[in-house]
């Protein structure tokens, strides 16, 4: 039985392995757009109905304007790099929610939410573009689908643990399950940090392609580190996100590369049969 599970996991890995465009990171994704996007769009609609959309026309227009520019840059990249069918699946939408939470997010398929609480951290239009680029990058790299795939793998791993310890005494089985739980939890946190770092880099490329100043991506995290509660953050190895200082360091180091990549992708020509 254990051999069957191991073989199944190997086959799944071989069939489902792909590469994240631009960064080149290998990923495993078992969840198709057809499976996840209808649910994503429905959940987004429900969220908007249950939360207070901002009535500040100026701020809302700024969020939407930045989102449109960055999504167009992403769309152009996809259509110029044989990702036309994926580009066609996105339904870009940008909303500002009246809430003091310091956050923004993007659901699979391009459904974006900014909370008014993050705007002071953004501070200006380029800061908004930095956060927008990061959130859009999560959808572009299909991090949501990848995390769902990882959850499936964890369930299979749990089955493997149960099978492997079936003949042991209850205490031994409990210890194995605890070891599996702690290991998978910390592994998932590190996995999430990988996604965050990748989104930081992709987002910087996209904001440059859209005509925004990439230095502001660094400044956003400097301002984030200056928040009153920044010192209360958990140690990085127990966090789903890299530390503020790690992000500042990484973004500063990546900026020259981002400039080169953005220039390269901005000058790409769309195929004649590609519709934008």
UniProtKB/TrEMBL annotation:
Cofactor binding notes: Binds 1 zinc ion per subunit.
GO molecular function, one term: metal ion binding
Domain Peptidase M48: start-end pairs: 75-253
Cofactor: Zn(2+)
Keywords: Hydrolase, Metal-binding, Metalloprotease, Protease, Zinc
Entry GO CC: membrane
Family affiliation: Belongs to the peptidase M48 family.
Superkingdom of the organism of origin: Bacteria
Organism: Lutibacter oricola
InterPro entries (UniProt xref): Mito/Outer_Membr_Metalloprot, Peptidase_M48
GO biological processes: proteolysis involved in protein catabolic process
Pfam families per the UniProt record, alphabetical: Peptidase_M48
Keyword check for Coiled coil: no
Protein name per the record: Peptidase family M48
